[in-house]
Amino acid sequence: MDASMNDADVAWLRSRDPFASMNPKSFPRTIPLEGILHNDCRLIRCEAGEVLVREGDYGNSAFLILAGSVSVMVDSLSQQELGRTPAEKLSWPEALRRFMFRSNVAESRDPHQVVPCPTNSAGTIRQLDDRQAIFLQDFDLVMREHEHVSLGPGELFGEVAAMYRSPRTGTVIAENEATLLEIRWQGLRMFRRDKAFAEKLESHYREQWLAIHLREIPLLRYLPEDKLQRVADRTQLGSYGRMEWDTDYKRQRKLPLAEQIKSEPLVAEEGHLPTDLVIVRSGFGRLSQSYGASHRTAAYLGKGHVFGIEELAYNALRTPQMPPRMLQHSLRAIGFLDTLSIPAEVFAEEVLPHIRRSELPASVAKWVTQAEKRGTDRRNQTRSPKSKRDGGRDLPIATGTQYQQTELIEFIVQNRLNNGREAMVIDLHRCTRCDDCVKACASVNDGNPRFARQGLIHDRLQFVQACMHCEDPVCMIGCPTGSIARDVDTGVVEIHEPICIGCGTCANACPYQNIQMANIRDRDGKPYHDQATGKPITKATKCDLCSSQPSGPACASACPHDALVRIDLTESKPLTQWLERRS
């Protein structure tokens, strides 16, 4: 992680807590404690006003304060305060004016789009040691106007986002000159081999975050506080697969389906008695059913979705004469899957009585109604409801158990298109190849379209190679200045060009190759050059869903045959509904 980390640095770290109290025997010989400190950590020197972590960003590292102090902002800072310039929403007359007088120069920019402008941005970029860092210009004013909490030596922050691949929940700024140890998530997981460190991490998560994450689940939103706390106390945390799914996906997508499914970590197996309600905290899971010697994909689950509710509810409401119901599907991790598991008995006693009918699958709601009608006569009930092999699932995503949809769902999962929140899909039965979509994209980007009409094809559908504004945006991990970020309100992943340093980290990280690096020119066609190095300035470019345009995505608006759509593939229901309307 840091080539300059030497044996003296490691020895110094070993003399300080929490590493001084760690038992070296807890770590394998092949991965000793000193090796983790040397390879998965780096020392960072910070100065007052440096933005260390930005709210909403994705990161793969936690930070341990060794000296000095930092402030965690309780109030959210504005985009301008973080050095980001929000997309300007154009009026129709202004959009028309820019269209009529657009530049003929490829990738041309005005000066304020190339470097931060003090009049509209509080952030400045400085070289600090061997890294680029962003600072608040009005640091003292920001600290006076916003509520914040100070953290000092020995305290850890950012570990929840790093361990569970979730957006940062707050902005952290250095209060003074401070020394931090950055620990990437691989190192955090290895440090958990030390029992005391693991217990401290889990205790912190359970005290600060678990109840909040449980409350975000629709099924649990109406639980009384005392019930929620009892559920939290019994909930188990689980992680499956590799967080670096993006480095494996190109290899795995070439595997035959049976091998691909077999290689995915198994969370719960079809035909077994359900023991937990599994909640997807992050990542994706594949639902599959046995089909001959292999499996067929029934659906995929994303953040907030649950597995096993139908079987658990049936078993909780059945009469003694009814046999228990086994799991109708298997659940496997697609790349990476992070889960919360509520034991079956806790679900039956603490959760099921407080779930509203509207939050339940239709079949489960029916059983609840039947159980209430039976009342004291439940013992006389000897007939179980008819059970379909497909489970009759009424999940928050389309079940996909109709076999005519199976191949499409398997194609989406195989190519990890289920990560896309705004995927571009073209119906080739309607598309006339006029390229009006590409021309429209070019017209709002000074003649520089952000996609080409090419991409993966399945049957009548083409999944165009354009930014999908992913559910798990690995492109956002590692950006040194935070120039690539997700808009909190719209979900659009945008590049804030004034603070983009052209390092290419995001373009290299995108597994779909939907981010391009471009040389930037002025309106006369002359390339901009970096004053320090004299090299041409490059910026990351990609689709931003025409966030500044009053008409929305120009590609979809311009299609004369209604063949193109921007659609959420993190759930299968929107795509199947769109196809049903066209059949």
UniProtKB/TrEMBL annotation:
Give every Cyclic nucleotide-binding domain span.
47-189, 219-319
Checking InterPro entries in the record gives: 4Fe4S_Fe-S-bd (IPR017896), 4Fe4S_Fe_S_CS (IPR017900), cNMP-bd_dom (IPR000595), cNMP-bd_dom_sf (IPR018490), RmlC-like_jellyroll (IPR014710), RnfB_subfamily (IPR050294)
Q: Does the keyword Oxidoreductase apply?
A: no
Q: Which UniProt keywords apply?
A: 4Fe-4S, Iron, Iron-sulfur, Metal-binding, Repeat
Instruction: Using the UniProt annotation, give all residue ranges assigned to the region (Disordered).
Output: 369-399
Identify the Pfam families for this entry. Answer: cNMP_binding, Fer4_11
GO terms for MF: 4 iron, 4 sulfur cluster binding; metal ion binding
Record bears the keyword Coiled coil = no
SUPFAM superfamilies noted in UniProt: 4Fe-4S ferredoxins, cAMP-binding domain-like
Task: Outline the extent of the 4Fe-4S ferredoxin-type domain.
Answer: 422-450, 491-520
Q: Which domain of life is it from?
A: Bacteria
Positions with biased composition (Basic and acidic residues): 371-380
Q: What name has this protein been given in UniProt?
A: Putative ferredoxin-like protein YdhX
